[in-house]
Each structure stands twice: as C-alpha cells, then as structure tokens.
Amino acid sequence: MTDAPAPLRLFNSLTRSLETFQPVHPGEARVYSCGPTVYNYPHIGNMRAYVFADTLGRTLTHKGHRLTHVINITDVGHLTDDADAGEDKLEKAAAERAQSIWDIAKHYTEAYWADVRALGIRQPAHWSIATEYVPQMIEFARTIADQHCYELDSGLYFDTTTVADYGRLARHATDEGESRIDPVDGKRHPADFAIWRKTPAGETRQMEWESPWGRGAPGWHLECSVMSEALLGFPFDIHTGGIDHREIHHPNEIAQNQAHACTTDSGARMWMHNNFLVERSGKMSKSSGEFLRLQLLIDKGYHPLAYRLMCLQAHYRSELEFSWEGLGAALTRLKRLVMAAASVRDVEAGAVSDRRLVDLLARFDAAMSDDLNTPVALTLIEEAAALKKIDAGQKRSALAAMDDVLGLQLLTLSREELRVRPKNATIGENQIEVTLAKRREARAAKDFAASDALRDQLIAAGVEVMDGDPLGWDWRLDN
Ligand code: AMP
Ligand code: ZN
Questions:
Q1: Ligand 1 probe mutation, 70, 244, 273, 293, most atoms within 8 A of CB
Q2: Same domain, 41 and 20
Q3: Same-domain check for residues 467 and 399
Q4: Packing angle of the helix pair 374-386, 355-369 (nearest 10 deg)
Q5: What is the band of 29 on the pLDDT scale with cuts at 50, 70, 90?
C-alpha cells in the first residue's frame, strides 16, 4: 500500500455530501464553533459538541494545517425557547436567582472551561465573548438594516425573503425548528428573526446598550456572524455546532452573512454538525431527570476521559445513547489502552520505520481523513498498543502520533487514576490498600476465615474486591 496521506474528506451539511477540504488560505484551517450559553452548567451532551470540534481541530493539525479555532461564549441574546418566547436565558436566570447577570455568566463560563480542561479539549486560539463585541454587532446591523430589515416595537427584524435561498442549510423546517420560532406580533414571515431586541418601554435590563433602534440587546444569531468574521475573516473554512443549529441558528447566521457581504456565499465553506447525545428516556435536558453534568460522572468515580472515549466510539454524525454501563465499558477500554501503552511511556521516541507501524499509521490517517472515523481509528490505536516484539521507541512515537489526534492522554494517564472512586466513598484509598495487604497475608497463610472477614469489611465500606481481574483493577468502589 502507498504511504501518501489520504485527502481529508468532511461531510458538509450545506451540500449534504462528503467534500475534500480545501482551505481558503493555503496551509491554514480557520474554524468557528458555536459555544455555550452560560446561564447554566453544560450537560455532557453539550460537551459532545466540543469533543467533536476538538477532534476536528486535532485532525486538521495532524493533516498539516495551521489551525485557528474560535469558540464563542454566549452571555447575551439567546432566548428561551417556545414556552417562554422573548426572554433572554441569562436575564431570566439572573432574575430567578436575584443575582447579577455578569456573575452568572462568569460562574458558568468557568464551569464550562473546567469541563473543557477535564476532557482534554485543546484551548482554541480565541474564546470570543459576545458582550465584548456589541459595538461591532450594532455596526453590522446598521449596514444591513435598510435593505434587509424592518423595525417593530419589539426590535429590528431580519426579513428572510431578502436573501436568496433562505434556509438552504436546513432544507426543510423540522418540528423542533418550527416550534422554536417566536410568535412575535407583526413579523412579516414566520422565519424572520430579531437582530436587535428593544428593551420594552418602562423596563431596564441588566444588559443593554444604546443603538439606532433604541436601548436593547443584540439577537443571538448576530453575535456569531460578527465574531466569526472579526476573528477569522470572510469567508473562513469550517463552522461547527450541534445538529439543532442546522435548523435555525445557522440558517440565520448565513442569511445575515449574505446580506452583509452582498453575496450568496454562506460565510463558511463548510458547515459541520454533530448529532445528539441522548438518554434512553429521550432528549437530554438540563431541567428534567438526573442532570448529567461532567462533574456528576466524576463524582460517581469515572475519569472524565472515559466520557471522551465514549464519544469517540461513535461517529460524530450518529446519535449516541448515554448509559452508565456504556460509560463503564468505555472506562475499561481506556484502561486496557493505558496498560498496553505503559511499557513504552518512559522510553525515548524513535522514528517509525517498522512496516507494521507504518501501515497502522497510514490506516489511522485514512480513517480520520474519512470524515473523522473515530470508531475505526480507536481500533487502530488499540492494534498498535497491542503489538509485541517491536521497537519500543517506534511504538511510543506511533502511539503518541495517534493520541495527538484522539486526545486520550494514553502516555500520561496511569491506571491508578482510572480507578473508579466515587466522591461519597466512606473509606480512604490507603485504608483499602492496607486491608488488602492484610488479606493477601491471610490468604498466603491459608487463613481463609480471616481473609473472608477482611473482604466482608471492605464490602461493607462499598469496596468491590476483584480477585484475579485480568485488568488488574484489584478493587473498585461501588456507586
Ligand atoms: P447551548 O449551550 O444550548 O447553546 O449548546 C451548546 C452546544 O451543544 C451547541 O452546539 C448545541 O448544538 C450542542 N448540543 C445541545 N444539546 C446537545 C446534545 N444532547 N448532544 C450533543 N450536542 C448538543
Ligand atoms: Zn453560533
């Protein structure tokens, strides 16, 4: 087989087809990802969107492109959906909790960044904060207002019939898309959307700015058009987000971009969308059932990178169902990989020439180049980790190269770090180790009564003793 790198093919939601990645600026890759709305903690479904964007970014780097990645922080403008049409998510949270909106935004931005770090998501070149770009948003709106917008008492609205082919990205409105459109009095077309929302007369909002259309706040879609152009130019390469954004948010960004640039260009060459993480009971939600935050997984004793691996086991365009059993299986798989890589972690890296590794690296490159086929890429890193009678330095280099793309930290994680240890455990690890050592002594002395008593003592404290476990877990804390 040839070792020439495979061309990078990615699924473009605009054309609903695989396309070869051709950078706007040779040698570069400029990527914008819609970031979190910081009115609450992100759930692990939200974090799937950033694991996907990070995997895309790592792959672009692996393919030799100089990456500029932007993720925005939405701290203004994102409305609650249908039931509460017209309210800003952050204003609402601040009013409910009688807290400053700026404090709320800061708190949840930091919580989101903690999850980003825990999942090994690389820092983007820019975290763009929406409220820092309001003057540019007003300027952007001003330039399109006459030809593409109309004013109502509630704000400035974009007339979606003024651009060619509005909604091409969405293809057809889904039920969810339709229901999320605000029923606003006076809108000319149901899909028209606010680009500036006036503060109602007699009211004040915590976040508001003066504009040619009165005191108020920008619409959510406006921020991404403005910040992507400001930081990445027009057009740029790839815009990412969850599949829900394909229906309203991104079509609206595209309409604004077209109006602003007087072009039919959408603003990004490719629009890529990750599918949803779902629960067996249905859609993941921040308000119903057990709120699945990454911290909950950590509190139950799972290492966060097990969740990253769980995401990588599915293709990003497939729906992924979350279950605790699935997470446990992903953790075991990660531990197997870490243990297989352990023998080469401290050796010096060497240039790869062994045919088996060269072949695996080429297949890995082909899998990732095939629209980020992480499920296959994972099996290839496992094959490489399992190779015996092979130069250790070369093996280390090959594993490091693959792990640079998958981000599982195989060469730095230890198997002890992956042990299941719930936060509410009533027994410390030292105590477990001491009791297990005593039990080993009792067994060696064939004192089975003592050995069983020690085991029962551990079970009572929530420790599952795993004798003869081939993975060498030895013990784990039940949760
Ligand atoms: P939000 O904070 O609601 O703006 O969402 C942040 C990101 O998470 C967006 O890209 C959403 O499309 C994405 N997203 C929301 N729910 C899920 C889910 N259950 N699975 C995967 N991605 C999601
Ligand atoms: Zn956006």
A1: 244
A2: yes
A3: no
A4: 170
A5: very high
In this structure, which ligand is nearest to the CA of 318? 1
Question: Do 413 and 431 fall into the same domain?
Answer: no
Say whether both 62 and 107 belong to one domain: yes
Calculate the average pLDDT of the chain. Answer: 90
Q: Span 407-434, mean pLDDT?
A: 87
Q: Among the three residues 417, 433, 465, which one is the final residue of a domain in this structure?
A: 417
Instruction: Determine if ligand 1 sits within 6 Å of the CB of residue 49.
Output: yes
- Per the structure, the complete domain to which residue 193 belongs is given by 9-278
Domain identity same for 401 and 428? no
- Distance from C-alpha of 211 to C-alpha of 216, rounded to nearest angstrom: 7
Domain match, 127 and 89 both: yes
Q: pLDDT at residue 8 above 70? A: yes
Cα–Cα distance, 459 to 465 (Å, whole number) = 8
Looking at residue 1, its pLDDT comes to 45
Backbone region of residue 474 per phi and psi (left: phi > 0; alpha: psi in -120 to 50; beta: other values): left
Ligand 1, atom nearest to 240 Cα: 10
Q: What is the pLDDT of residues 306-332, one digit of tens each?
A: 999 999 999 999 999 999 999 999 999
Asked, for residue 287, whether it belongs to a domain, the answer is: no
Ligand 1 atom closest to the Cα of residue 243 is 12
Q: Beta partners for 73?
A: 129
Query: Which is the closest atom of ligand 1 to the Cα of 244?
Result: 12
Q: What does the pLDDT look like over 268-282, one tens digit per residue?
A: 999 999 999 999 887
Residue with tokens 């040698």: 27
The residue whose C-alpha atom lies closest to atom 18 belonging to ligand 1 is 45
Q: How far is the CA of 33 from the centre of ligand 2 (A)?
A: 7
C-alpha of residue 249 to centroid of ligand 2, in Å? 7
User: Is 66 within the bounds of a domain?
Assistant: yes
Among 50, 41, 21, 6, which residue's Cα sits nearest to residue 316? 50
Residue 318 is part of a domain; what is its CATH number?
A: 1.10.730.10
Q: Note whether 316 and 274 are within 8 A (CB).
A: yes
